[in-house]
Design brief:
alpha+beta; Alpha-Beta Plaits; seven-stranded mixed beta sheet; RNA binding; RNaseH-like_sf; RRM_dom; Epithelial splicing regulatory protein 2; RNA-binding
């Protein structure tokens, strides 16, 4: 038997059904006995939605009103009535089992499953298997229109069924016509058989996506060659953006409830520090499911709307396609719940972790269910992954979030197989925390930067930038006005965590140029956001770059301008940063400029220098200034050409080594966060250190510290 089902929501109708997240307001159904070609009673039931504000299209097509819907039953009660009435009709027809049949897939996949998931009640088993009448019709009549172009009306017209839509109530005509179409397909000329129903997965299957592991070196080769040896259909992958940082793969699967995600098909994206960045790549079983997922663009997960975009199979492979032998063994136990632990003491052992979790949340396989994440040199990172055999044990473990182990509190989060692979991969591919200083050392930063401090309004402020926007995006946004930017005149404003704040300042060559840019670019789109552009003065810009705020209430001074604070001198902006020779290849040759030093500075003290690891040089070389953002451009290296003679001089010049002798650099770790210079100098009392101006003390900024992945520390020369 079939149960022919039709429904409507309070919003869009037809091909856009369910795309606007509107609730179900109507269900109409009728039982059809395929053997005897008899039908049961036709039932129509209104559904009371939480929001009774009907769209204009809904009012026009359905003829329903908020007043009529206000007297109806809620969805859970209507579904109970549906099950009872279907069972009663089946008994009358002498049947016991049935399968749903709907006009397309939208009603079941895009309306019923998402709505019941959000309202936290379960659908009966019958809603996890159904026949798509459009597909069955096209199979029976191959010369008919393509499946995506079919409607109830076009199928009826193809068969020459003379039904008048205006004579019946909305929903009743649709079900009666669908039943007539089914009987035509069952006629002697066609003898169509309903054999392969559509299925909806009950739950998302976790586990590693790829399993072929023969040690780390094979894995590394496999990772490099994965684009050739393994392929993922780009028509099955989407990127979800704007996810809550604590969301797990199960939360994402619930957001896409009703659509079939491939096994291990949710890959949470991580930033360079191994933390989730609010994005995920999701792989579906076929392109049809992917296209339905794209219709959930800007649907809500809790109070947040999620953006859904197309992605490529190559992007998915980079996130979820590689793993090491150690990870393969760890993930070999399928259908396990994975929990990530962060902040473990570096001395923590497997016994310590098992004791911390306790008997109420036993780990699968004991010690085999623990995976410690380590740096390439074998040092622990403080992260670990734990396997649990069931949801109950995992929930017990999550209750220990921020409990103490040793002298540190431990953070616990839900995790995924893809996240395990990413975190371990990032550690394998990372460089040591303090690498050996190579030779030769090449200066790559031009001489002192200057910030305007006058009241001339020759600057512009960009507000509302996408957090992913880089210098290339800003220069493209400026268009032809890029040529009017002063050298080193682009300044990104960072927050206290060293991340982009969404603001930037640009120094123009004149106030007229700044005015023209503000007029031309104000509220112009960058990616999917509009950006506000305001004209301002160099003094206002300088205040914000030094940590102050600029709003409608006026200027608030930065920390360095407050009388109670005594920040370090800004000599660091006037010194040459250096990078290893092998990292110089990352920069364009025209960016290599000669270092200029005044005779007085050279005679008084050796220059202050900052060492950057090769991996991070391009990203962070200008971000080592006083928080929240240095008053220099993090962009202009590589954009401003230097004379060829200067390049040659920089390449052939003999440089003074950073350290007077091997071993003259020491690193202090584990300092209290309120430690100052006086405490450090007192600690080293009796030892000879750098000159009296204390330029030998280099405090690592938040940005540099995030690159090195170490606690707050000082480096002493």
């Amino acid at each position: 038997s079939l149960v022919v089902l039709f429904g409507a929501t309070a919003g869009a109708y037809g091909a856009k059904l369910g795309s606007d997240e509107r609730e179900l307001i109507l269900l109409v159904w009728q039982v059809v006995d395929l053997h005897s070609k008899k039908v049961g009673t036709l039932h129509k039931s209104l559904v009371k939605a939480d929001n009774l504000d009907l769209s204009d299209q809904c009012r026009e097509v359905s003829g329903l009103t908020p007043e009529g819907l206000g007297k109806a039953e809620p969805l859970d009660r209507v579904l109970q009535q549906f099950s009872q009435l279907v069972s009663s009709d089946l008994k009358i027809l002498g049947r016991s089992s049935y399968t749903l049949c709907s006009d397309g897939q939208l009603l079941i996949r895009q309306v019923l499953h998402p709505e019941t998931s959000k309202k936290n009640f379960l659908l009966s088993d019958c809603f996890y298997s159904f026949y798509d009448l459009r597909k069955e019709f096209h199979t029976c009549y191959p010369s008919s229109a393509a499946v995506k172009d079919q409607t109830i009306k076009t199928m009826a017209e193809y068969l020459g069924l003379g039904t008048d839509e205006a004579e019946e109530d909305f929903g009743v005509w649709q079900v009666k016509t669908m039943v007539a179409i089914i009987f035509s397909m069952l006629s002697e000329g066609c003898n169509h058989v309903f054999t392969e129903p559509e299925t909806v997965k009950y739950k998302y299957e976790t586990g590693p996506w790829i399993k072929a592991y023969f040690g780390f070196f094979f894995f590394f080769f496999f990772f490099l060659c994965s684009s050739k040896s393994e392929t993922v259909d780009s028509e099955t992958v989407i990127r979800a953006r704007g996810l809550p940082w604590q969301s797990s793969d199960q939360d994402i699967a619930r957001f896409f409830k009703g659509l079939n995600i491939a096994k291990g098909g949710v890959a949470l994206c991580l930033n360079s520090q191994g933390r989730r960045n609010g994005e995920a790549l999701v792989r579906f079983v076929n392109s049809e499911q992917r296209d339905l997922a794209l219709e959930r663009h800007k649907h809500h997960m809790g109070s947040r709307y999620i953006e859904v975009y197309k992605a490529t199979g190559e992007e998915f492979l980079k996130i979820a396609g590689g793993t090491s032998n150690e990870v393969a063994q760890f993930l070999s136990k399928e259908n396990q719940v994975i929990i990530r632990m962060r902040g473990l003491p570096f001395t923590a052992t497997q016994e310590d972790v098992l004791g911390f979790l306790g008997p109420e949340c036993p780990v699968t396989g004991g010690k085999e269910g623990l995976l410690f994440v380590k740096y390439p040199d074998g040092r622990p990172t403080g992260d670990a992954f734990v396997l649990f055999s069931c949801e109950e044990y995992a929930q017990n473990a999550l209750k220990k979030h921020k409990e103490i182990l040793g002298k540190r509190y431990i953070e616990l989060f839900r995790s995924t197989a893809a996240e395990v692979q990413q975190v371990v991969l990032n550690r394998y591919m990372s460089t040591p925390l303090i690498p050996t200083l190579p030779t030769p050392i090449i200066p790559v930063i031009p001489p002192p930067y200057t910030i305007a401090t006058g009241s001339i309004r020759d600057c512009v402020r960009l507000r509302g930038l996408p957090y992913t926007a880089g210098i290339d995006d800003i220069l493209e946004f400026m268009g032809d006005a890029t040529g009017d930017i002063k050298p080193h005149g682009v300044h990104m404003v960072l927050n206290q965590q060293g991340r982009p704040s969404g603001d930037a300042f640009i120094q123009m060559k004149s106030a007229d140029k700044a005015f023209m840019v503000a007029q031309k670019c104000h509220k112009k789109m960058m990616k999917d956001r509009y950006v506000e552009v305001f004209q301002c003065s160099g003094e206002e810009m300088n205040f914000v770059l030094m940590g102050g705020t600029l709003n409608r209430s006026g200027l608030s001074p930065p920390p360095c301008k407050l009388p109670c604070l005594s920040p370090p001198a800004y000599a660091a902006f006037q010194t040459a940063a250096v990078i290893p020779a092998e990292a110089a290849a990352l920069y364009q040759p025209q960016a290599l400029l000669p270092t200029t030093r005044t005779p007085q500075a050279s005679a008084a003290a050796p220059p202050t220098v900052t060492y950057y690891p090769a991996q991070a040089a391009q990203l962070y070389m200008n971000y080592t200034a006083y928080y929240p953002s240095p008053p220099v451009s993090p962009t202009t290296v590589g954009y401003i050409a230097a004379p060829p003679g200067a390049v040659a001089a920089a390449a052939t010049a003999t440089h003074t080594p950073i350290l007077p002798q091997p071993g003259a650099l020491v690193r202090m770790q584990g300092l209290p966060y309120n430690t100052g210079m006086k405490e450090i100098l007192s600690f080293f009392q009796g030892y000879q250190y750098a000159p009296d101006d204390y330029n030998g003390l280099i405090q690592l900024s938040d940005q540099a510290r995030s690159v090195l992945q170490a606690p707050k520390e000082w480096v002493c020369l």
